[in-house]
Amino acid sequence: MENLLKPNLFNTPNDTDKTMMSTVISATLPKTNNTELTKPVNFTLKHIRELDPNGSLSCVYWNVSEWVVDGCSVLKTNSSFTVCSCVHLSTFALIMQTPSIPLPSEVLCAVISGVLHFLFLSGFVWMFIEAVLLFICVTNLSRISSKKREVLNSGFLCVIGYAVALVVVGVSVWLVPDGYGSEQIMVFKTLAQFVVLGCSWILGFFTNGSKVLEILFLILNSQQGTFIFLIYCVLNNEVRYY
Fold first, then answer.
1. d(CA 12, CA 36)
2. Which of the four, 84, 192, 195, 200, has the lowest number of CB atoms within 10 Å?
3. What residue spans define the domains of the chain?
4. Is this structure's pTM higher than 0.70?
5. What span, in angstroms and rounded, lies between the C-alpha atoms of 184 and 165?
6. What DSSP assignment string belongs to 92-142?
7. Residue 95 confidence (pLDDT) above 90
8. Could you tell me the CA-to-CA distances from 153 to 128, 133, 138, 167, 207 in Å, in that order?
9. Which residue has the higher pLDDT, 18 or 135?
């Protein structure tokens, strides 16, 4: 039963990690529907996990859709057992709350995202520069020799290779200051990438003997580059602005 009645269904005002510390038990009285008691009932729950010194134990009962502590309290506890007291009969359990582990700083996450964005763009810019140099070298070798010191020197190429990526990242930070490290934006990008790169492959499982699905599979996968261009260029405000 504890696999269905999860400890995270215990709602508390504090942000803590919840751990089920006992098996889930139920208590009823025969031939009656009344769950209220004139006197509290005490019961002992055995720990199924080791206690955390920083943890806080709570005797809880199941109320429709969540664990609550109303009418229940902890009488005493040791390393192996906990005695609970409740004024009604229901489904009971023992839940331990421990302080949540702090997540990494959002500022650090945003900085890392910006650096990754910069390096990713720099890689593409350098590939473009290499393609241009190769084209010039193949089509007009004398031009690259005569203009090497004026245009194609290493300093100029470094400025282009890194400055373009830096400008794009700067524009992104200026237009969407909370974009890097934002959970909503990360989720949106993940869903968009899943639709573009993953959904079309689902048709591959159903193409057996169906020419129509085979054609759709080929069309959708061959157009992934088009979809990526639409999402990252046409529908991207930063790219259109730049």
1. 24
2. 195
3. 7-99, 104-181, 182-242
4. no
5. 24
6. EEEEEEEEPPPPPPHHHHHHHHHHHHHHHHHHHHHHHHHHHHHHHHHH-HH
7. yes
8. 16, 11, 18, 21, 53
9. 18
